[in-house]
Design goal:
2 copies of one chain form a homodimer.
Chain A: H1 5-18, H2 26-51, H3 61-77, E1 83-86, E2 91-96, H4 115-132, E3 137-142, E4 149-155
Antiparallel strand pairs in A: 1-2, 2-4, 3-4
Helix pairs in contact in A: 2-4
Chain lengths: 158, 158
Amino acid sequence: MADEAPFQFLHSELIQYITKSADSGDTENARNITKLEIMGFRVGQGLIERLTKDTVRFKDELDIMKFICKDFWTCVFKKQIDNLRTNHQGIYVLQDNKVRSLSQLSAGKQYLEQAPKYLAFTCGLVRGALTNLGVKSIVTAEVSVMPACKFQVMIQKM
Amino acid sequence: MADEAPFQFLHSELIQYITKSADSGDTENARNITKLEIMGFRVGQGLIERLTKDTVRFKDELDIMKFICKDFWTCVFKKQIDNLRTNHQGIYVLQDNKVRSLSQLSAGKQYLEQAPKYLAFTCGLVRGALTNLGVKSIVTAEVSVMPACKFQVMIQKM
């Protein structure tokens, strides 16, 4: 039995609850995705605070990103990010080859448009975690073949 | 770092999200608690299905309750129920001396009235799990001293 099951089930219910009205328009849809992102943000803030309570200070931005890819991801999803890339100018791409919240969906192309609502919470998680580590960012998700996903983190210089 | 942290943080956010309007009336309050209970119910259904996938058939009702107290509780809360009592006539009392969702609240009596919204999801969890094992029930929670709680399960004979 995977340890993250209670979290995953609760996450699914949350998505269902927030986006339940099937015939909601585009504006409503966007608003729901924002709500999920904000909830993820707050959960990410709480989690990173607890996770880093006893760690040493991070050397630099890259060091922080590595922590997100390893420790933070493992805490939430019980696996690490599969690939981390950066252009060394403030853009990081975190690739997860098997995103848990997507792995329940069929891989067919017709479900691609459903993906954003399953990823909004996770984008928020990353943004919240980074914010509490002093790194302001914009996090977006890009899916080409499910259940793989690339999370793009654009650091906002302050 | 406790494994259940992502679940707990998400649960807190959910409560916040559902009960956010501070000045909501009693009816609204009751409705929110019902919503939380129903979400717990559905999560409980999903979890128990996965948890019992490879277990042998349960001997009787008591055997099922023991499974809830041990395996099911451990899966969600990383601890077992501390005490299980029954009158052997369809009433079971599950005592948890440290309910995770309550342990964030101060123990003062003035917070007791806040307790129901933190317990509704858990009551639903138990009811959902039991339902999928073929046991229809009513589950209520009683708090006298936080963060301890007694969950009362009344089996509904079908």
